[in-house]
Amino acid sequence: MTKQMYPTPMLDQLESGPWPSFVTGLKRLAKDKDYVVDLLGQLEHSYKTRKGYWKGGTVGVFGYGGGVIPRFTEAKDADNKPMFPAAAEFHTLRVMPPAGMHYNTDVLRKMADIWEKHGSGLIAFHGQSGDIMFQGATSENVQPAFDAINELGFDLGGAGPAVRTSMSCVGAARCEQSCYDEGRAHRAVINTFLDDIHRPSLPYKFKFKFSGCPNDCMNSIQRADMAVIGTWRDNIRTDETLARKWFAKHGMNELVNDVVARCPTKAIRLKEVQALKASPTVSTVAVSATHALEIENRDCVRCMHCINVMTGALAPGKDKGATVLVGGKRTLKIGDLMGTVVVPFMKLETEEDREKLVELGQKIIDFFAENALEHERTGEMIERIGIVNFLEALEIPIDANMVSAPRTNPYVRMDGWDEEVAKMKAAKQVA
Fold it and tell me: What percentage of the chain reaches a pLDDT higher than 70?
């Protein structure tokens, strides 16, 4: 470092709390980089003036239309020169993570070395987009940084009005709740839409997310334009040995208060062993010599709570697949939206199954590209045109299990209900 540190009294306050501060990390980087010294200087200036000084522009790498977020300083002196010249450019490279977020320490070290050489040294792992964020580089260093990252086998992620970086949970690699191969489904989709990631051409961003079970560790339902959530359609599996072991450790109070009472649809009942009923839709498991759980699977909404509490004793069924939802997003034009079910269940076991998923994704993206307004997400488009029009355009048959939100109005018109039920049954028989 050749430059003297700027006084940063306001930033210093951020180091005084009980939690680790990004300011401490930046100061550590500033010991070796004038770039970060000036970055801290501009940040302190922003805190003092309560104003941001970054503007966008156009910066990229050869052959790509997206993936780089350009930032140029607007903090200028009386001569219109940058007040903090070493950090006058602060560009960010968005890099796609591996499916399932599988890294090893050797790769992470090489990434850190690359960015220490070509950039600020500041790297973040984005919690919602999944991108590896290489933050802070000058225009001349963007291309060599990308070339080095690309040599490791990594590609740029999405930025701008494009298909954005997709995410998948660790899933089948390590999680016993996984209901399909998330990594394979993720790769099949991304490999298909790679051009749509690198060359923005949509009205606004479009996100895929893949979660292996209804726990939805990727926040797919809330965040993804197309969410693929693992599920099952048969009965919950049980293991009496593990159930008895769990009960011996936790007892009746915890069983009643944390499992039975928390079932949102009251599908679980605590019964005496001799009072259990036999039914094709009922799962039972004894927790002691006298008491057992009885689960009516027709009422189960796959919330995962009982399975999370009694893992192993209760488990997802064997007939596994995925539910596809469309239209989830964070706040923009009309507020937060949860994804709406468009395919209640589909198998994802074979290459043919995954091709069907890719085809569905292509249909949705094509319709979005043609019908969405500028800066409008998929969910907002559906709200505007109506879900029925959306489904008809995609030639997806309407199903009673397509749920956007629980019904709040108990007064339902039943005109033509019998005819609609007959249509649904006929469609299922054909499928």
Answer: 96
For residue 182, what is the domain's CATH number? Answer: 3.30.413.10
Domain enclosing residue 306, as ranges: 237-315
- Say how far apart CA 84 and CA 81 lie, in whole Å: 9
Distance, CA of 227 to CA of 207 (rounded, Å): 8
In a domain? residue 167: no
Structure tokens at 277: 């009923």
Cα 132 to Cα 68, 127, 135, 162, 288: the distances in Å are 12, 9, 9, 17, 49
Find tokens 């930033």 and name the residue: 11
Q: pTM of the predicted model, to two decimals? A: 0.88
CA dist., res. 169 & res. 157, Å (int): 17
The region of weakest confidence among 230-244, 256-270, 387-401 is: 387-401
On the 0-12 / 13-18 / 19+ scale of CB atoms within 10 A, 106 is: exposed
Torsion 412-415-418-419 (CA) sign: negative
Q: Is 372 exposed, middle or buried (0-12, 13-18, 19+ CB in 10 A)?
A: buried
How many domains are there within the chain?
3
Q: How far is CA 376 from CA 222, 352, 354, 367, in A?
A: 16, 32, 28, 13
Mean local confidence (pLDDT), 320-326:
96
Rg (CA), the chain: 26
Q: For all residues of the chain together, what is the average pLDDT?
A: 91
Q: How far apart are CA 375 and CA 373, in angstroms?
A: 6
CA 101 to chain centre: 12
- The verdict on 191 and 330 lying in the same domain is yes
